[in-house]
Structure formats: structure tokens, C-alpha cells
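thread: overnight batch results

M.L. [08:02]
morning all. the overnight job finished for the chain we discussed friday. pasting input first so we're all looking at the same thing
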Amino acid sequence: MKTLLDLENWNRKEHFAHFSRMEEPFFGATVEIDCTKAYETAKELKVSFFIFYLHKTLMAVNAIENFKYRIDEGKIYIYDRIDASATIGREDGTFGFSFMEYNSDLEIFNQTALAEIERIQNTAGLFTRSFEKDNLIHFSAIPWLNFTSLSHARSFTFPDSCPKISFGKMVNSENGKRTIALSVHVHHGLMDGLHVGKFVDFFQEEMNKK
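M.L. [08:03]
and the structure it wrote out:
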């Protein structure tokens, strides 16, 4: 379900108009996340760390309203729920775009994610399904790189307003601390650095929980 945002009375109406006219309306940031406790918790729960931090990401996305905004023909809609389209790798070195429906219950989400990962790994091609709605985040993991910045391939003519969230290689320090790079790219017409900051803070808090 989605509802129409009252754009005329929105306090960011001018911001939306300004940034939506740009050829590249997206901006991004990369931050370091402490994942020490989250990694330990995932192992205790016998959940893959990838699925664990994807679930935490969707929790944060669905907690920050601006991350649930999408643009359709010049109008802004607010979705009730945001799901994920994550890139899933295969043994032959290729990957496919998946669809993973968000559920606040980690056990249910884990089952859904595992089934979708298995489907992608046993299916050829990049697009293995259609995506009728844009209540998604575009999600990827790049576990081979401890990056400090990241860019995305993007068609400026395609009307895209979905956030793009990526994670890098987990790094272990000598004192036992584990960190991971988090990259967030969002449409500036829909949100600002304030909202990205709230997302990062919420995500880090969730990663610190037992």
C-alpha cells in the first residue's frame, strides 16, 4: 500500500523541485560501521551475517519515513513497507537481482531470504523476475573490498528514486573489533544528509543490540 504525499504543503517542496531538475539527483556517503556485536549475534543465531545485516538495514529503512518515499510521474508516494532487491552471487562469478520481502521477524525473513538466494543461484541471467513496484532498496555486498567510497552505474534517463545501499569487506582489528563499510546513495529531492544520518544512527543502534 502507498499514500500520496501532500507536496504543496511539504516543507521540502522547493528542495524537491530543485534537485529533481538535475541530471544526477542522487548523493551518497560512506561510513564505517562497528559490527562486532552483530557478527557474534548472527553466529549465535546461526543466521548468515549477510542476511543478518540486510535485515537490520531494512529495519532502519522502514523506520525512517523519507527512505519510504518514491517518485512516480512527478508525484511522491509513501509506501507502507520497503523490501530489498539484493544482488546474489553465483559460483560461475555472475550475479542476479533478487527480491526479498521485509518482515520484522528475523526468523521469517531468514527463511524468505534463504529461499530466494537458492532460487537465484540455480537460475541463469541478471533479471530472473519482474519488479512491478519500486518499494525497494537496491542492495549489494562487495565483500572483496574495504572501500572508502563507492559509485553506481546508473541511467540518468531512467526515473529512479530507490535508495542504493552497499556493504564492503568486514575488517578485523587487533583488539577484536570488527568493522564494515556502509555506502548509502539516495535521491536528494526526497531527503538530505539529516535523514541519511538518522538512518545510519538507527542502523548502528540495531547492530549493537543483542
